[in-house]
Amino acid sequence: MKFICGIISFVLGAIFGSFANVLIYRIPRGESIVFPGSHCPVCGHPLSWKDNIPLISYILLRGRCRYCGAKISLRYPLVEFTMAVLFTIGFLITGLHVQLLFVWTAFFLLLVISWIDVDHGIVPDELTIAGVVIGLVGHALLGVPSLLTSLWGLAVALVLGFSVRFLGRVLSGREAFGEGDITTLSMIGALLGADYVFAGIFLGSIVGLIFIAGYYLVRRELSREVKFCPFIFASVVIYFLVSWCCNIFYII
Ligand SMILES: [Zn+2]
């Protein structure tokens, strides 16, 4: 049963990964996410269902458009695969529990937001607001663990986010923490609770520093503009895995 549910989670993740690609491309360009249907960005030819099967189409088409032969970015299957793996990990750790809906929603929105942040340096409010609403309404309706947990997570994100932003401005005189980072943390607080907000800020800073150091060692130059959302995303996934490991040790 668990194996079948794991496979379903993987397939569902790949499908949501495909939808994530649509959001990542269209939202920053102000395009509708429904119309027109999927088309090749080079020749504009509409894509049939055969060209749109997550992961499989890319392999069958050998990474090229069926109509014009243009190379399809490796990013598309990469996003689909990442989402599929995250959905599977989410299920394996959380199990068939209501909490899984919040975990999947957080992973999905964080992946989309992180790519948009890297590409365009913006965090669309419609995505973070959707995350906050799903967190608050979902916890209020399902009561797992409770609306209070969600509200507390949101409050901690706002207080900590604005404090770090204020401190950063006073100490370094620069914008250390953007509004998009605060709205992303608010979404995490509402969906997953205050623990993940702490992880997002503090673990995210450590992951960010490791990235900057690694970048310097490889390129021998400082990365010009560092986007924080991917580090928040990475730290949420790391914290999710670590708290699971801690639980196992606790049980043993
Ligand atoms: Zn084409």
What is the compact description of this entry?
The protein is mostly helical and 252 residues long. Helices cover 71% and strands 0% of the residues. The chain folds into 2 domains: 1-95, no CATH class; 97-252.
Walk me through this protein's architecture:
This protein is mostly helical. It has two domains: 1-95, no CATH class; 97-252. The protein is built from nine helices and no strands. The protein has helices spanning 2-26, 56-60, 75-94, 99-120, 125-142, 147-172, 179-192, 194-219, 229-251. α4 (99-120) packs antiparallel against α5 (125-142), α4 runs antiparallel to α7 (179-192) and α7 packs across α8. It starts with a helix and ends with a helix. The model has no long low-confidence stretch (mean pLDDT 91). The structure holds zinc ion. Residues 40, 42-43, 45, 65, 67-68, 70 line the site of zinc ion.
